[in-house]
Give the backbone structure.
Amino acid sequence: MGFLDHSTNNIIVDAVLTDTGREFLAANKGDFKIAFFSLSDDEVDYTIIEKFGRSVGKEKIIKNTPVFEAQTVGTIAQKHRMLSLPDPSIVRLPTVTIEGTSGLSGNTVAFNTNSNTSRKVVFEQTIEGETRIPDGVSDTSFTVEVPDRFLSLQEKTPFNIEASTRIASYTSQAGTPNEKNGARTEFTLQLQPGLDDTVFKTYGNQGNKNTISAVVAIIGDQSGYRKDFSVTITRPSA
Amino acid sequence: MAQLTGGSFKRISPEDIKVRRSALNQLVDVIQEDVSGSTTRRAYQVFVTGGVGPGVTSSLYQTIYDQDFTLQTANPIFDMTVGLYESGSTVTTCKTGIDSAGKLLFPSQSIMMREKVDIYKQYAKVLLGDANSSFSSPFGDAAAANRIDEALFVSFKRLFARDKIKKETFAMRFYETGTMSVHEITGKHIGETLATTSVSGSMIFTDIGAATNTQRTFGGDVAAIVSATDTSRKVGLVFYDHGTCVFDIAKIISGSQHVYGTIDAMNRLTAKALKPVGTMMIGGGLHNYAANTAGATLQTATAANNGGPDANTNVTRAKYIPDLLVSASIDQILDHFATCRFQSGTLTAMTFQNVTTINSTLIFCRATADEFNYSTNPTFTNTSGRIRVVDQGQEDSQRSFTFPTTVGLHDEFGNLLAVAKLSRPIEKNDERDVTFRVRLDF
């Protein structure tokens, strides 16, 4: 994707259909019904405000942030959604972690075709310096985006598999909130059966064809809070 | 996916969704080289004769591309073909009869006569609603002089015509006069005139006046194509919705001019020395007349100027109409028009504007002052979760702000159906309402 011409002040924006949008239109079942909008700011780096101050920082963001053209792949078109919160004086927002996930090292969950074919993932919102996560941020359900070629969610059925990328989307319901009203969900990722030599040869890492690397994303359905983490799938040497 | 109730989505009310229709015009410009060039003009050899000699192969139409048609990036601009009206003078004077099955019969010196008649009928059926009716310019005129007996059809591809041709935008530069042969004007071209590019008689044919003189017919809106220098001279028709122009060949060329050149024929010998087997010389060659005088004798096969241009009087010498249209294959008639009558240069041969009708859904995404002032962008907070855009110690006086760059449109279940991008980030804060007008075109 290239950058958009930012010499215009036009606020009319032309939309492009995503894969899902096109699929719904083609299916002709009346599923293409726009009901909500959301905003996102994937290109913006807010650390500029911290570095240059609110006045200069704002100007730098507006003038020095080229915006990419629209993406049609839905799973990567909007990474970080914006939030509407009832309290305008909030100064802290929750962070999301996957601590407690089995096989986790750093931000990577490791699988092995022999010994560790499934891993329990724990996703949790926490907040520092506050006693309670603001209302409107605590999610009741999550979407888990998984590379369907290699992984699936145990005992769950995806509600969508993107045809071009084979990213499967599952819903995982939140459990009881933690003591700070943080949402929490758990699910088990398992390796797809039939990860054979062909799969490893095709999708294996460049330097080591016995390891496949991929990314799993957990997104709060209501807040849009997102956590991406890496997975590695290793097989015994071929 | 779960029902959306949370803070990152906002429901769009029905009154914020508007549907409207607009039209987009694009200027299409076809240069002479594209029409005349052998690499940009594609022939499809689907007609093959058997019998004497190597036979004749030809297309039923040719396609003009904007670049070498063997390249994958080439775009077809228009198709071009010729047709003859079954009851027109060219067909009736040539026709020898009709067989018991209703098939038209023609002498063996003619080529593709039935195909030329069939093409005319096909266009008549689609554009006039009756395969047996005839085109005339002005449209529907009953006068025999305005009937189009010999037609040049130009059908623009949908890629360029889009939904239709815009009225009063069509123009074509065309050379009415063929290359003069030595027998028409002393000192003129002594070689074959059929394949020699025209140098005089350039005319502009246009649909000027169509805005107020359009008729609605079976094939959609139609108006006359006229000569730009004399708009009372109607030379053809343009069917805007169908993207097709029908030209009266008798009016766009000087049909009575002497034609002289090599054409494919059912001949097991050559037309003259150095010519390929299976060709003949139209307007010359074997048995042409020795002098431009009444009663001149026919040349024998061994005569000195045998194979040269016919020197007979203008009355009997071969002409573009009807001789070329009868004796030449569709390919060779089109080759003549494309290489000679459109000339070969960088000038515009044809131009028009197309119309694309766009149905747009305008969606007004209204973010009020207290909405979308926080972000889930990882850089929005520091490692301890503190919002970066509010200075430490200024929490009482400063409020959070964001810079949206993207608008996502979702269905009831959160599926992202469409994405719109802003040309630059726009500040959104608690003192600012922002309305994004998102246009979705279909």
